[in-house]
Amino acid sequence: DSGVTQTPKHLITATGQRVTLRCSPRSGDLSVYWYQQSLDQGLQFLIQYYNGEERAKGNILERFSAQQFPDLHSELNLSSLELGDSALYFCASSVVTDTQYFGPGTRLTVL
Amino acid sequence: AQSVTQPDIHITVSEGASLELRCNYSYGATPYLFWYVQSPGQGLQLLLKYFSGDTLVQGIKGFEAEFKRSQSSFNLRKPSVHWSDAAEYFCAVGEGSGGSNYKLTFGKGTLLTVNP
Question: How far does A96 lie from chain B, in Å, by closest CA?
Answer without folding.
Answer: 6
